[in-house]
Amino acid sequence: MTRPSVWWRAGRVVLGVLLLAGLGLAGWHGWRYARSVRVERIDLQGARHAEAEALLALAQVDTGLVMLGVDPALVADRMERHPWVASARAARLPTGTLRLAVEERVPVALALGADGRPAYYLDAAGYRMPPAPGAAYDVPLIEGLAARYHPVTPTEDPVLRALLAALGGLDPATDALVATLTWKQGEVWLTTPPAGARPPVSVRLGRDDFAGRLRRLRLFWDRAVLTRPEQDFALIDLRFAGQIVTQEAVRAP
Fold first, then answer.
1. pLDDT tens string 204-214
2. How far apart are CA 152 and CA 83, in angstroms?
3. pLDDT digits over 52-77, tens only?
4. Are residues 78 and 59 in contact, defined by beta-carbon separation less than 8 angstroms?
5. What is the reported pTM?
6. SS3 track for 68-120
């Protein structure tokens, strides 16, 4: 068998050295290019109620910054301090574009202040969002909450959190039965909307199992209320397992 010549082996070594040098030079130029890329454009996506100016101020980014100096995780964390932002992402593009995307919170209730005016929205996780221009949601009203608005901390009340979680999972037909929720001595009372000649009905939900009790309300409404148009109800009490206590109203002649 013929062995490779010394010259051939030496040529392979030289070629390998040149190849590595070329890769190193390309990498150096690539790093140098990356260091020269600056933020030329900021593309903000997903913001409806969170103002763009407020989000950019929180993100602390602007055009002209060196792209490699922008930390995407830090920028996203800063934007998530906005009360309407549930989650945020940031991505650096080699074209000089910094892409920012936010997912906003979805209200499930609107808390009223002591003056009866809208104070803040609440989402299913208990976070509170201030009223914003164009933010008009057909959600139940909540009266009697004593807790003050806090922009980034959810409510700590376990009863309220359970109620909000239940509201977030309602089907449209059950949601249509919830007009107003009132906080009374740690218990939740519900008022249905008026339906034609039928006046609103007070519903006592109590302090727990809101999802189950709202399902029971829907079943009772379909089977016992809608099927008796001649009868009005003043109270529906859902606090007791296995039974529904009602108080009928006397319809005026």
1. 999 999 999 99
2. 6
3. 999 999 999 988 888 888 999 999 99
4. yes
5. 0.80
6. HHCCHHHHHHHHCCCCCEEEEEEEECCCCEEEEEEEECCEEEEEECCCCCEEE
